Please model this.
Amino acid sequence: MKNDYRAGMDAIGIEQAFQRRLIDILLEEADRQEHKTPKQAWLGIGLGLAVLIGLLVWLLGSKDD
Amino acid sequence: MINDYSETTIEQLVAAYSSIVFRTAFTYCKQTSDAEDLTQEVFLALIQKKPKFESEEHLKAWLLRVCINKAKNHLKRDWFRRKEVEPEDLTYLPVEQMEMVQAMLKLDVNYRVVLHLYYYLGYSIKEIAKILKMRPATVGTRLKRGRDNLKTILGEDREK
Model:
């Protein structure tokens, strides 16, 4: 029982073409991840600055009242 | 090979683990094309999250857990709720193997996965409990019931 299942599952093989395609997709993704980090950091800094400026404007505005 | 995601390592990871992930996905979705999609999703999650592993076994268990979670979500999707998927044609296998795999694929998914992890991947009840995040006693019960159901299915199929 166990051996038939094992042998049967082993025979349901993963195609080499699929493995090759998978490797290509993963390498592309790894490359994208590497180049994404600086962009994300700049986006974070930009957002942080915008929030800070917004807060300052709001604080100054509320002082005038 | 762990905690390193260089080009060579990615190739090694795919060579070492894609078959295990693919076949585990296949036990859920019963179709090669869906199993390939799930395998791709699992490996993409690995590259995107870059988790830190303590050992090769830890990495393998992580891949299987992610695969199982993704496969469960896959089964939950609308289309699957309405229709039970027929296993793909396995007539290219020798008769005994085909009967066995088909019988396994007829089992309820909860039994199917436990039997697959136990018989195919050789995990212990304790290890399966860890991967599936359930109590060892539950795994033991599912293993027993799964085996009983499998015998019934095999008996019925042979009577036909």
Q: What stands out?
A: The CA atoms of residues 29 and 53 of chain A lie 35 Å apart. DSSP finds two helices and no strands in chain A. Residues 2-64 of chain A form one domain. Chain A touches chain B at residues 1-2, 4-9, 11-14, 18-19, 22-23, 25-27, 29-30, 33 (CB under 8 Å).
